[in-house]
Amino acid sequence: IRFILVQNRQGKTRLEKWYGSYTEPERQKLKAEVHRTVASRDQKHQSNFVEFHNHRIVYRRYAGLFFCFCIDTNDNELSLLEAIHLFVEVLDAYHGNVCELDLVFNFYWVYTVLDEMFLAGEIQETSRSVILSRMDQLGALE
Question: Is residue 63 pLDDT above 90, yes or no?
Answer without folding.
Answer: no
